[in-house]
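Subject: mismatched residue count in predicted assembly?

I count 573 residues in my input, but I want to confirm that the predicted structure covers every chain. Input:
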Amino acid sequence: MEWETVIGLEIHAQLATQSKIFSAAATAFGAEQNRQACAVDLALPGVLPVVNREVLAMAVRFALVTDAEIGRHSVFARKNYFYPDLPKGYQISQMNHPIVGTGSVEIVLGDGQRKTIGITRAHLEEDAGKSVHDEYSDFTAIDLNRAGTPLLEIVSEPDMRSAQEAVTYAKRVHSLVRYIGICDGNMQEGSFRCDANVSIRLKGDEKLGTRAEIKNVNSFRFLERAIEFEVERQREILESGGEVVQETRLYDADRDETRSMRSKEDANDYRYFPDPDLLPVEIDDAFIDAQRASLPELPEVKTARYISELGLADKDAITLAADKSTADYFESLIGAHAMPAKLSANWMLGELFARLNRDQLDIDDSPVDATAFAGLIARIEDNTVSGKTAKQVLDGMWDGKGSADDVIKAEGLQQITDTSAIEAMIDEVIAANPSQVAEYRAGKEKLLGFFVGAVMKASAGKANPGQLNQILKNKLSG
Amino acid sequence: MSIKPDEVRNIAHLARLGLDESQLSEFSDDLSRTLDLVDQLNQANTDSVEPLANPGQCSARLRDDVVAETDQREKLQTVAPNVDNGFYLVPRVIE
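Triage response: the counts match. Full output below for your records.
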């Protein structure tokens, strides 16, 4: 039997506002419990929600970059359920009139093929607070700092056919929301959360299989693993004649498995209805135009520009433009610091990325920032250090030994570019190896490498390779 | 329109209301009569009427994205039944 996997994602992007969606309390991460939970967030009697304009602006920006319909008449609704970290007894969300309607994003698959993933809708809602179950033996402790934090829930069509496609789509949305400045994308802090609806069906079937919803996935790697586990689980059930139950399953990263959380059979009836405390939101042309004008250059446009104007290779341009922070770093190198584009790109994608990956760091947390890195590129560009030595300099900078110039000076790594000094070293090597010189002159040209190595060794690796080669060839050819 | 005792039990559960089994039939009668009353609305022809989210003919007033609330945790927690170390404490919830 050949199975086809069908995946749809629900992404909760926490909007990067200063204040909450319906109150003027702060949204900053990491505050002491309940220091950022005001009377509105606590649902004290008599309080009323007032919509934060910036939240609407951010949702409209998202609609613009996903070619989505904008809900010009948007309505907030109450989603009713009881849980102690939801003080009102309902979550303010949107049901029939979301602010973002049907849209799409394009993803580039591993083989270079492009695929359009449909976005069903994206709606605004408030986050709940946090329940802490392990601090007290007889109580659940409630921290309401997060209550009322604005979320944009982005619902995709069931358009993805593999875990890899789902991850590619999630990364694409992640890149977009960061680019347009509406979400910081921090998955560890829960600013960007993915729930996956996963089902399988026999290849060729029109009808969708029964799905399970996987929650609690806080990294792209876990998203891929959770979906793969779930697909395998469902395949085993169906091939042994069983039926998949529609339910919510939690991903447990430690055990690399999903397990049942609650079945939809006893699922809540949320009894949505329009929130009488909030009037409908009207979005006009002027508001939309202002948001359109505020949009930054998007990844595709950047990629095209890097290729056509800067002459970068396609692959390099795509990598540099995909992530906002990476693009900002690169543009700081070539813009504010006026470094050559190709050299900067090569060193970023090669040596910088290798070290970031090794230490599992984001580029924002790089111990060598763009200004410091530009200092290194400048020394490569002006031949103060060779490429090989530059890696050593970068290691020193990485370990906090100061700027490129500091490391070069402290470790005496300055390249030798003085022609007469290089000539002197070459003369010594030639004088010490008369038989090899004779062989070279007799036609054994691959001995050039031997001479280069010997001179490099004599210079402690500091001779400028270009000059060395040039002078060496001249002298050897006699 | 008739609401059966089972539905009353479910609604009460969703609303976290504790009802006696003996009250189920009473409430199913009450709720059925209430819905019958509201059901009269279905006699009105609404073919060309847009659903109305709010009777006010105006749109929401918006606020700027500015933090204007100061920390009043201590004051707010004086009215809470049980607090400790800045947390609100509630009966243990186990899922």
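Residues 5-42 of chain B form one domain. Marking this ticket as 'not a bug'.
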